[in-house]
Amino acid sequence: MPSIIDPIYGHVGISDLEQLIINTPEMARLRRIQQLGLADLAFPGANHTRFEHSVGTLFIADKMAKALGLAQEEIVKVRLAALLHDIGHCAFSHVVESVLKRNPAYQPVIGGRRFLKHEMFTRHIISNSFHTRPGIESRVIDGKAFFEEIAKIATGDVEGLPKPYLAQIISDDIDADRIDFLLRDSYHTGVSLGLVDVDQIIASLSLNNGRIVLGGSASYDEDMALTAAESMLIARSHHYSAIIHNPKTQGARVMLLHALENSLGNLEKSGNDLKSTVLKFFTSYTDTDLMNFIEAHGDIQAKKLADKIRSANICNAVARFTHKNLNPRTRMALSTITRNGVAKKMFEDELAKRFIKKSNASVLVDLDVASGIPKSTRIKTGEYEGFLYDESALANGLVRSISRQISLCIFSKAVDDAALLQASHDFLLDIESLSPRLLHFIRNETSLPIEGLLLIFYSSHRMFSKEADGRITMPRLRNIARIYHLVRELGKIERLRNLFDYRFHDRYGFHYSDRLFEDIQLLVAMGMVDEDLRYFEKNGRWKQRYEYVLTNDGLEYAEMIAPAYQNELKLIEEYLAINKHSIPRDMVSIASGRYKKAAKEVLAFSRIK
Question: Residue 571 class from Cβ within 10 Å (0-12 exposed, 13-18 middle, 19+ buried)?
Answer without folding.
Answer: middle
